[in-house]
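Title: Comparing notes on inverse folding

I've been comparing how different people in this forum approach sequence design from structure. To keep things fair, I'm posting one structure and asking everyone to reply with a full sequence. Here's the target:
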């Protein structure tokens, strides 16, 4: 996938993903189309602003979701162009974002108010995260073996890099932290992002049984299309947590 360009996600015409590098690692921004003049963005990166402006009018209505308190880089750039955008985050993330340059901005708590998500989308609140992570789920109509499946848009909980980085320092960090290649839970997540691994593990195992995800869109790495995704995530969590 080319960087700094918005791409439609296969099988989801309402969903766009843009990739950019920060710092030395592939990061993803997501855009959900509500209508021709309204979108919901997650973690919008500054390098993706120019290509977005080239394709959309300045008076478009934007809703911006912080998937956690760490994913705020780039939002102020977007607000400079779209000052009327509505901001959303979890209650826990809001308290931390107010200390990271957003004290003067109104941020709506997703527990009480949610943006106008497209049909079959909803917000999930995985427990056990220090920075108030949220995920977005799309419930698919039919999937693997004609059963109901889902698409998960997660934050930092999972990584899916096709390969280790070409940049030497980034490559060393990925190897030390167990962050690449393939579907991973980084040591950073295990020791610094999660503050209650037991609670998170119990929750996500039940969610896997309920949702049967077959597509994963993490905040970092590549989109993973996999009919066996649920079982792979379950194995990964048992091994890492």
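Reply #1:
Here's my take.
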């Amino acid at each position: 996938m080319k960087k700094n360009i918005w791409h439609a996600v296969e099988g989801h015409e309402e969903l766009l993903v843009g990739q950019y590098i920060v710092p030395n690692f592939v990061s993803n921004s997501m855009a959900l189309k509500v209508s021709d003049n309204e979108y919901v963005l997650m973690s919008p990166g500054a390098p993706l602003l120019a290509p977005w402006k080239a394709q959309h009018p300045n008076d478009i209505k934007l809703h911006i979701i912080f998937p956690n308190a760490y994913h705020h880089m780039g939002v102020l750039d977007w607000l400079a162009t779209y000052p009327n955008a509505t901001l959303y985050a979890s209650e826990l993330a809001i308290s931390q974002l107010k200390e990271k340059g957003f004290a003067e901005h109104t941020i709506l708590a997703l527990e009480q108010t949610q943006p106008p998500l497209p049909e079959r989308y909803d917000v999930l609140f995985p427990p056990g995260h220090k920075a108030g992570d949220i995920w977005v789920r799309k419930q698919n109509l039919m999937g693997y073996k004609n059963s109901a499946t889902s698409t998960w848009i997660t934050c930092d909980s999972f990584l899916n890099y096709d390969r280790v980085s070409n940049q030497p320092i980034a490559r060393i960090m990925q190897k030390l932290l167990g962050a690449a290649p393939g579907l991973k839970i980084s040591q950073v997540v295990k020791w610094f992002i999660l503050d209650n691994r037991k609670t998170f593990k119990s929750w996500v195992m039940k969610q896997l049984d309920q949702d049967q995800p077959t597509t994963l869109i993490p905040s970092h790495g590549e989109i993973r299309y996999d009919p066996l995704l649920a079982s792979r995530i379950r194995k990964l969590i048992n091994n890492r947590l």
